[in-house]
Design brief:
With about 350 residues, the protein is of the alpha/beta class. The chain has helices at about 15-20, 25-45, 50-65, 310-315, 315-330; strands at about 90-95, 95-100, 125, 135, 150, 155-160, 175, 180, 200, 225, 250, 255-260, 270-275, 280-285, 295-300, 305. The structure holds 2-acetamido-2-deoxy-beta-D-glucopyranose (6 copies).
């Protein structure tokens, strides 16, 4: 329901309806009536924006993207087949104001993310994945002060992730820039987004870039995926093992060398670890096999050696069976199957 209907009759104080039923209005009474409407509607104006203002921004977006057929139904509200934009499947409204834009795979072939998108003052989620958007990283999103969820993955953005990327909303919880063409380094500033829960940068094209140790400062991080990037060959930053909340760590084919940090056993929340297709050597730290929540482990295509620690054999059958699937992968690097894994072949 658009906000101009927000002043529902049952919310009006009785004096106003009494006046209406009397059907006689003095000029003072009319003023009182108008002021009370103004007063009553104030709370709705606090953080919100007028419906027609937001509607205009959507139509401007559609035009900016050269009217993709997938959003043909974004029509002016004056058109005969009237529907409110809050009913359109791409739009989420909260309290009558636009809080989400979901434009995944809409064949948006022309253009960029325009700065005026942040004129939607209450925008919290923005999903533009699987389109053909290009241009530099859209710094204009720094002006969307409420953003929590940003997905720009699978587009043709180029250049680099800017050094001041921490100017994105401090509430940002989810950032997916995977499968884009951001080259060079991942900036240290990525570690200065304090609320980040998920950081997905797989298959960007960080040729000869560094993995910033500052990622280890993201104390609320739960999912990190930096797989399939051609980083400078270096060991996994040991700062990553400070990530107490981390549940998934994906670093497949990211040119890791050296040993797996002994402190990997500090990642007590870890459920999935993928370090496959790197140049890791040395033993697998025994702490890894003590992680109670770990269910999926990919270590194949490395140069790891040694035996699977006794602790695995000692672990609960339930845990063990969840490891089984992965153990055959370890065989490729010289591990012997243990316990229930024997049943595997
Ligand atoms: C929506 O309105 C309610 C009641 O005024 C308020 O408590 C809530 O915080 C608002 N939500 C947002 C996201 O603005
Ligand atoms: C995108 O949409 C097309 C058809 O409109 C569909 O075939 C394709 O699978 C979709 N891709 C994704 C990633 O959703
Ligand atoms: C944010 O908006 C202001 C006012 O429109 C503009 O001057 C500024 O350049 C914008 N910032 C970015 C990073 O685009
Ligand atoms: C991140 O974006 C990619 C590409 O659009 C998508 O395949 C993937 O599912 C997203 N990751 C998550 C965890 O949502
Ligand atoms: C972030 O991490 C870096 C390197 O790991 C460290 O030197 C720095 O002190 C940390 N900053 C904060 C604010 O924790
Ligand atoms: C992490 O692990 C190392 C070595 O395994 C240990 O010395 C250190 O105290 C641990 N740190 C935390 C914060 O648990």
């Amino acid at each position: 329901m658009p906000p101009w209907f927000a002043l529902s009759p049952e919310k009006n104080p009785t004096p106003v309806s009494t006046k209406i039923s009397r059907m006689t209005f003095t000029s003072i009474e009319i003023h009182f009536f108008l002021y009370s409407i103004l007063f009553l509607s104030l709370p709705f104006h606090g953080n919100s924006q007028s419906y027609s203002e937001e509607h205009t921004i959507l139509l401007k977006l559609k035009q900016h993207w050269s009217n993709p057929p997938s959003i043909n139904h974004w029509t002016p509200s004056s058109s005969s087949s009237y529907s409110t934009h809050c009913d359109w499947s791409e739009i989420t409204c909260t309290n009558g104001s636009i809080s989400g834009l979901a434009l995944m795979n809409k064949s948006i072939t022309a253009g960029t993310v325009p700065p005026f998108i942040c004129n939607l003052k209450n925008l919290i989620t923005l999903d533009l994945q699987y389109n053909y958007l290009s241009g530099q990283f859209p710094k204009s999103l720094y002006n969307c002060s409420k953003l929590e969820y940003v997905v720009l993955s699978n587009n043709y953005f180029f250049g680099s992730i800017p050094d001041d990327v921490d100017l994105l909303s401090p509430q940002l919880r989810y950032l997916n820039l995977s499968a884009t063409i951001f080259t060079r380094d991942i900036p240290a500033a990525i570690g200065w987004l304090p609320e980040l829960r998920s950081l997905l940068l797989f298959q960007c094209e960080f040729h000869s870039g560094l993995i910033p140790t500052e990622i280890g400062n993201l104390s609320k991080l739960e999912v990190l995926d930096i797989s399939y990037n051609d980083f400078i060959p270096l060991a996994m930053p040991s700062s990553f093992t400070q990530l107490k909340k981390l549940k998934q760590l994906w670093m497949r084919r990211s040119r890791l060398i050296g040993e797996i940090p002994k402190s990997i056993g500090n990642l007590t929340a870890l459920e999935v670890l993928d370090l496959s297709s790197n140049d890791l050597s040395g033993n697998i730290p025994s702490g890894l096999f003590l992680l109670k929540n770990l269910t999926t482990l990919y270590l194949y295509k490395n140069h790891l050696s040694g035996a699977i620690p006794k602790s695995v054999e000692a672990s609960k059958m339930e845990n063990l069976s969840s490891f089984v699937e992965e153990f055959w992968l370890l065989e490729y690097v010289g591990f012997h199957r243990v316990g229930h894994c024997v049943e595997f072949d």
